[in-house]
Specification:
The complex is a heterodimer of chains A (182) and B (387).
Chain A (H helix, E strand, L loop, with lengths): L2 H55 L5 H16 L5 H18 L3 H8 L2 H35 L2 H5 L26
Helix pairs in contact in A: 1-2, 1-5, 2-3
Chain B lengths: L1 E5 L9 H15 L3 E6 L11 E3 L4 E5 L2 E5 L3 H14 L3 E5 L6 H8 E2 L2 E5 L10 H11 L4 E4 L2 H11 L4 E2 L6 H4 L14 E5 L9 H14 L4 E5 L4 H6 L9 E5 L3 H10 L2 E4 L9 H8 L3 E5 L2 H6 L7 E3 L4 H13 L1 H15 L4 H15 L7 E2 L5 H6 L3
Classes of the chains: A mainly alpha (182), B alpha/beta (387).
């Protein structure tokens, strides 16, 4: 075979190798982004349930609503041991408990009667909004990663190694309305 | 919090992204955060101390016009040093697809990175090849923000995924003024137009066509036109019956812009397109001026569907004339709009908008991770080493 051909083939092989290593690098970065986003969301969820628990136990709500919120917050804080699915459904239940318990304008007015109540509501509002954001950012990272992992070469050559197929975090993250007066 | 902001366009060139970054930086500083802004700077005099020179801007054709950007090995080195020295909690880049400092910052940085998209589909078309090149950098962005529904649609359509919508802010207090411009005769009803005269999308032609009908009903009306352009040529295009009613101010400073709004009874925004947000309407509302605008989607949403300002069908001079006459002679209707506008504009006040931005920062920095230099797979970076 003539020299030019050998050089050309070698060149193509080198290019292909570079492409593969770049793609592997991309995958690595994307998985890392998912991991940090997931850790972040975990911290945000914990902060939310902590504030909800504090609100429920600080004596500013009516006792029945307080129990509903406290139970849901406690369930959300302990569900993690039983896996992500249980956690997500417990967190959704906390969302619903918060929405229902804080739906009545009279309840909100009662809580706002005290200074600490107003503060807790503002904190809860901030915590809920950050959960909403954190979940969005995580799911965005998952979507980007999946798009790369679906590529033919990535699948054929198992560039993702043993990394599990990334999962989006599905839950109800509605922010209760009217927590903060504007 | 230590925040690093990156502006891709030259600091001395006026523009939407530049003023967004400047306002955001000032609001964050006022809140007690440590802010450093990296931007291309021409002459290093008269910039605030919180701005860091990202390199000399070069004028290149980009996005259908000429933009002043910074790129190249030297610029990359500066971005690298800025990130290394800054030790930021969060890196916030603006317009990350512009081939300038923002894109470089995404490339050489790692950690919590927030990116804000400004332009919308109409103006920015990118080749798929460029997208591929930018992809690696883009994938490191942890949180994405869009300033308008259009910008968000562009982003979702081209890159997929999602973005949080946080609108542009207005520094409301900068537009509240008691001072009046001498060009306005306070005893006469007045209207003001703002924008380049020769830019058809600003819609001066629509206003000009409406003037005879307005002057016929309100003979002593004053129409003040603010903005650069050829005055002679513009004056010749006016109907002879209205020439004495029109005054030209040319280009004015930001302070005079606020005074011009405050001096006028009605601000007319006859734009025919190309506006992705309508910040100028918010500025007029902040200056307590009644707003009359074409019903572009962006304007409609800023004016709360007409509750905070009068709308007319885009490009319809007759409708503009009728609404203008009504507002000029009816001071009660004007006062009502001014009041509604003053309330509405608080939604766009930077002091309020910055809360949403801080919420995003919070949710990406919750792990306590810092922004560091990314040397993975970057031969160039390693070779340039710790210069």
């Amino acid at each position: 075979m003539a020299w030019p051909w050998i050089v050309l083939i070698a060149f193509v092989i080198v290019l292909f190798g570079l492409y593969l290593s770049m793609t592997a690098g991309r995958l690595d970065r994307l998985h890392q982004r998912i991991d940090t986003s997931a850790l972040g969301l975990d911290a945000l969820l914990l902060r939310r349930s902590a504030v909800a628990l504090e609100l429920a136990t600080s004596g500013v709500m009516d006792p029945a609503s307080a129990i509903v919120v406290a139970e849901a917050a406690h369930a959300a804080r302990t569900a993690g041991e039983r896996g992500d699915l249980a956690r997500a459904s417990a967190e959704s239940a906390l969302t619903q408990a918060l929405v229902i318990a804080l739906e009545e304008p009279e309840e909100l007015a009662l809580i706002r009667d005290t200074e600490s109540g107003t503060e807790l509501l503002a904190e809860l509002d901030a915590a809920c909004r950050r959960v909403e954001l954190g979940r969005r950012f995580l799911n965005d990272a998952v979507r980007a990663c999946r798009a790369v992992r679906r590529q033919f070469l990535v699948r054929a050559l198992r560039l993702a190694g043993y990394a599990p197929w990334p999962q989006t975090w599905e839950m109800d993250d509605t922010v209760p309305v009217g927590l903060v007066e504007r | 919090m230590r925040i690093g902001l990156v502006c891709p366009y030259a600091w001395d060139a006026p523009g939407g992204v530049r003023s967004h970054v400047a306002d955001l930086a000032q609001t964050l500083i006022a809140r007690g955060h440590e802010v450093s802004v990296l931007a291309p700077i021409d002459e290093s005099d008269d910039v605030p101390e919180w701005i860091v020179d990202g390199g000399n801007p070069v004028s290149v054709p980009y996005n259908g016009s000429v933009a002043k950007l910074s790129f190249g090995v030297k610029a990359t080195g500066r971005v690298r040093r800025w990130i290394r020295d800054g030790n930021f909690d969060v890196l916030h880049v603006h317009e990350p697809l512009a081939p300038s400092l923002s894109l470089l910052a995404c490339w050489v940085g790692r950690g919590p990175i927030v990116a804000t998209w400004h332009s919308s589909s109409e103006r920015s078309r990118m080749l798929s090849a460029s997208f591929y090149i930018a992809q690696t950098a883009m994938e490191k962005v942890t949180a994405r923000i869009a300033v308008s529904e259009d910008a968000r649609r562009f982003l979702v359509g081209h890159l997929g995924g999602d973005a949080v919508l946080i609108p542009n802010g207005v520094r409301v207090s900068d537009f509240v003024t008691d001072e009046r411009l001498e060009a306005f005769d306070s005893s006469r009803p007045s209207m003001v137009f703002l924008g380049r005269m020769d830019e058809p999308r600003k819609g001066l032609d629509v206003l000009v066509a409406a003037l005879p009908a307005i002057v016929e009903r309100v003979p002593n009306v004053q129409v003040v036109i603010v903005g650069p352009g050829d005055v002679e040529e513009q004056r010749d295009s006016l109907d002879p019956s209205v020439r004495d009613n029109v005054v030209y101010l040319g280009r004015v400073s930001d302070a005079d812009k606020a005074r011009a709004f405050a001096s006028a009874d009605v601000y007319v925004a006859p734009h025919t397109g190309g506006e992705s947000f309508g910040i100028v309407l918010a500025e007029a509302m902040a200056a307590s001026t009644a707003v009359l605008a074409s019903d572009l989607p962006a304007f409609r949403s800023v004016l709360a569907d007409g509750a905070a300002g009068r709308l007319f069908p885009t490009g319809d001079s007759a409708a503009l004339a009728a609404a203008a006459v009504d507002l000029l002679i009816n001071s009660d209707a004007r006062a009502e709009l001014v009041e509604a506008g003053r309330v509405r504009v608080m939604d766009f006040d930077w002091d309020h908008v910055v809360d949403d931005v801080l919420a995003v920062y919070d949710s990406v920095t919750v792990n306590g991770e810092h922004v560091t230099e990314d040397l993975r797979g970057q031969l160039v970076g390693r070779l340039m080493g710790r210069s």
